Amino acid sequence: MTTKSNSATTWRNWITESQAKRAELAKAESELDDLAQAVDRATLGACSVAKEANHHVGVDINMQVPSREERDQVRAALSLRLSPAGRKRMLIDSGQALALSSHLQAMEEAERALDECQANHDRLTETIHSLAEPLATLEGERPEANAVALMAFNDQLESMDQDAEKIADLIASYSEGTSEEESQDDIAIAQAKLDELAALDALGMSSAEDKKAAQAALTKAKAAAQKSLEEANQRAAALRGLERKALEVSEQIAALTDTRDHVARIVHSDELAEYERQLIEYIQDDKVGEIMAGIRKAASALESVTEGSRYDVGRLVIQMPHLYTPPNRGEISGTKITI
Question: From which residue to which does any coiled coil extend (predicted)?
């Protein structure tokens, strides 16, 4: 039992850790997609302001999507025109200089935004690599998944189900017993008898023995009621403990069932992959082709020595089933193979 429990614990720990790592990696990859889109938008923005600015400087660039180098050439041309020598040589007045300066500022802001997006993208790419490596290592350390492991899980679940049934039976038994109402009824009966004797005594119609017996009956009934109350309290405490234990076992069964099912999916996926591999290997084996070639050769030989006969063997056509595990499953699922 200890070995089985340890096996289940090992699997639960591995599943929990691998799921957490995969979730973290998936989140980072999703964020990377968002950042990639942000880089694309920032690139388009930088290209747009560069093309607009280039109308003033006329640099030879790709006017569809200018490269970073081409955009830098446009910025350099703008800076040159805005230099004192450039303004003097090209007779640029203050209004023109203001317009050129505005374009240069827009380009610099667009390039800074692009650089920031690209830097965030690069940092997250490195983070993804740092997340992927330990996940790959962890998946390589996966506990053994096979029919024996599944049997161990099923045995443990069966044992836990039996424990749950025992607890349920105990809960049912502790829910029964002498009720407090019955004890109070006994006290009321004894008290009524004593009251009746007191009335008769007032009328001079009762004996001391009768009163003594009635008092003893009342005392006995009260003691029985007190004992019944104590037993009821003990049963209630035991019942609460059993109900908590039942919940605990139920949660353990649910957790172990999830773990067992996860292992079962791995086991059966591996089985499916192996059988699909064997199927593809068998069909692609040269032996099938050799057998068909032998059939055709024998039929042809028989036809050649049998006057008026025709032995048309034809071709062997195999339609592949839908496959789930081969890397090229999309190419071969449902296809027809003629041999």
Answer: 18-45, 100-127, 180-259
CA dist 53 and 49 (Å) reads 6
The answer to whether residues 51 and 66 touch, using CB atoms and an 8 Å cutoff, is: yes
Q: Which amino acid is at 32?
A: L
pLDDT at 165 (0 to 100): 92
CB 325 within 8 A of CB 269: yes
The confidence band for 282, taking pLDDT boundaries of 50, 70 and 90, is confident
- Helix (H/G/I), strand (E/B), else coil: 337: strand
Look up residue 63 and give its DSSP letter: S
Domain limits, the chain: 2-140, 147-280, 285-338
Residue 180: its pLDDT value, please? 54
What is the pLDDT at residue 37?
95
Question: Amino acid letter at 175?
Answer: S
Q: What's 144's DSSP letter?
A: P
User: Of 45 and 231, which is predicted with more confidence?
Assistant: 45
Residue 336 DSSP SS3: strand
Q: Say whether pLDDT at 91 is over 60.
A: yes
User: What 3-state class would DSSP assign to 319?
Assistant: strand
Look at the block and give the residue holding tokens 């040269």.
Answer: 286
Task: Go through the chain and tell me how many residues it has.
Answer: 339
CB 157 within 8 A of CB 257: yes
Contact 42, 68 (CB under 8 A): no
- Count Cβ atoms below 10 Å from residue 103 Cβ, excluding itself: 21
3-state secondary structure of 318: strand
